[in-house]
Amino acid sequence: MIQIKDLHKSYHMGSNSLHVLKGINFDVKEGELVSIMGSSGSGKSTLLNILGMLDEADSGSYVLDGVPIKNLNEKIAAQYRNKFLGFIFQSFNLINYKSALDNVAMPLFYQGMKRKERVERAEHYLEKVGLADWSHHLPSELSGGQKQRVAVARALASDPKVLLADEPTGALDSVTSHEVMDLIQGINDEGKTILIVTHENDIAQMTKRIVQLKDGVIIDDSPVKQVRAKEYV
Amino acid sequence: MFNIERWQEIFETLKKNKLRTILTGISVASGIFILVVLLGFSSGIQNGVTEQFSGDATNEISVRTRRTTKSYKGLNPNRRIQLKNEDFENVSSTYDDYLEFRSANYSIWSGQIVYKNETGNFSVQGVHPDFQYIENSSILQGRFINQADLNDARKVIVIGTKVKSEMFKGKNPIDEMVSIFGINFKVVGVYSDPGGEREEDNVYIPITAAQVAFNGGDRIRNMQFTVPMQKSLAKSVEVSNLLLESIERDLKQKYIIAPDDRAAIRVSNTLEEAQKIYSLIDIIKAVFWFVGIGTIIAGVVGVGNIMIIIVKERTKEIGIRKALGAVPMSIVGMILQEAIFVTMFSGLFGLILGLGLLELVGPTIDNDYIKYPQVDFNTALYTVFLLVAAGSLAGFVPAYRAAKIKPIIALRDE
């Protein structure tokens, strides 16, 4: 699903240049649930941004579902993001004046889907994350866990190839963290490819494979025995 | 533009920020309102002044004389220059081809008129038949003085409506006899003058009769001529100015007056005055447009400012939208459309309000110089175009900024 070869990225700030990614090689197969771990400054967020086409690598190749991702202009990047990727953020990033339903329907709006169909799809995914009764509530009326579940539903709505989650439990307490992880595991069980950036070990243990990043290189990449979040719920 | 989803988005965001939307709207609406009212009044002034000038024929040349102020060719200053019948005849025949109506005038400023028990003081003017057209008088009853009256020096009189109402108290004055300083005149007509009451307390008698009755001999007080309008105002002004100079030169030569003696003979031209007034109206119009557009610019800058703040506030939202697959054009469209919508809607509101005010207040304005203030269809159309342009202008900078927002930066957690 994802093939990355010799990925380099550096940031330039004035005369200083910061080499963040120093040759990343890794593949993700369809249906995998991978966690990317590392301390802050290890380059894990940069890697996720490049995977999410929010940022571009200086060199190296990135192939997503057989499509080489390079030399994107903003328009094509936006279309690829819409088609291939679903994002889950630490701070949820819901649009706060839109109802849960409208938030979930947003990616479908940019696909040019008709309103009726959009609402149907969005309702389906809200039901899937267990928030069917909350569809007309604003994000401010939802708890943190509920917000993140709305965000998951939004990420799923456009039926993307890959879900990218950036610290999805970073803003949640441990109980709701486990609920969200349970949801993510369930989605993975259905065959969706998911990448999670986290620095929490117990969250990483709930994935199937841990990639350790340090100073811009992968120092460890090994499968783990998955801990089911259900055990904690 | 016609995407219903986009409109729903816009209404939603506007509804979320009611106060801000209303305040922005007011600034644009008041700009357009002021522009419309100003334009309405400038057309009102134009109507008023045009009507003032229609009181007399606008292409009128008049010749008056006073005393000389300069010695010339051995003659002392302070000589009284007196026009004679022959002067009038000379000008009439010399410039016959250029003149339309012509009349000499011999008048008594305050003539006591008696009808039965009523007496009154009015200005008694001995004139030629053409005087009716020079003054733009209209005859309400009977007739004006005619050529036969003039030839035979008949003692007939044409009175103004004011004289009629004061002296005859509603009775039919035609064929009644009135006396001026004891000399009887027969009323043959009643006139009204568009110049208003001031010009309606005159009475007119044939100049020949006036000269006989009031010991005028062949003296005349002044003469008036009208020049037919040419194709353009400028051309008319040119022709009448040439006539004016030429008449003045002839008379100065005849009466031996210094060429630079401005007081002795005054030949004046109302057309030139009219042209001055019309160019003044043009200036007033330009100033009003300037002020109005300035006000609109203030409003537009307000809208642009607010939109920039909106973009700033919605940076994160725009970042989210982009991450979810919004292409830059759709973001530009969203901001631009919102700006245009706000300016258009509030602008049209101001336009309607302004037109409404003119419609309501316009007819009640009772001023000689402002009449029927209104905005014609074309001007209203211009302002609408102006609004669209203003809205796009107001939205352009913020929309451009919004399009430049990078999702990675917008989404970075603070």
Notes on the structure:
The complex is a heterodimer of chains A (233) and B (414). Chain A has helices at residues 44-51, 74-84, 100-110, 115-128, 144-157, 174-189, 201-204; strands at 2-13, 16-28, 33-37, 59-64, 67-68, 85-88, 162-166, 193-197, 209-214, 217-223. Chain A has 233 residues and is an alpha/beta fold. Chain A is globular and about 50 Å long. The model of chain A has no long low-confidence stretch (mean pLDDT 90). Chain B is an alpha+beta fold. Chain B folds into 2 domains: 4-52 and 276-410, no CATH class; 60-269, no CATH class. Chain B has 13 helices and 12 strands. Chain B has helices at 4-16, 18-53, 85-94, 131-134, 147-152, 161-168, 207-213, 233-255, 270-313, 315-323, 328-361, 377-404, 407-410; strands at residues 60-65, 83-84, 102-115, 118-127, 138-142, 156-160, 177-180, 183-192, 202-206, 219-220, 222-226, 265-269. In chain B, the strands form 2 sheets. Chain B has a 6-stranded mixed beta barrel. Chain B is elongated, with a radius of gyration of 34 Å. The model of chain B has no long low-confidence stretch (mean pLDDT 84). The chains are: A alpha/beta (233), B alpha+beta (414). Chain A binds chain B through residues 49, 52, 54-55, 74-75, 78-79, 81-83, 87, 89-91, 93-95, 97-98, 106-107, 109-111, 115, 154, 158, and chain B through 5, 12-13, 16, 316-317, 319-330, 406-408, 411, 413. Chain A: InterPro entries: AAA+_ATPase (IPR003593), ABC_transporter-like_ATP-bd (IPR003439), ABC_transporter-like_CS (IPR017871), MacB-like_ATP-bd (IPR017911), P-loop_NTPase (IPR027417). Chain A: Belongs to the ABC transporter superfamily. Chain A: This is ABC transporter ATP-binding protein. Chain A: Residues 2-233 form the ABC transporter domain.
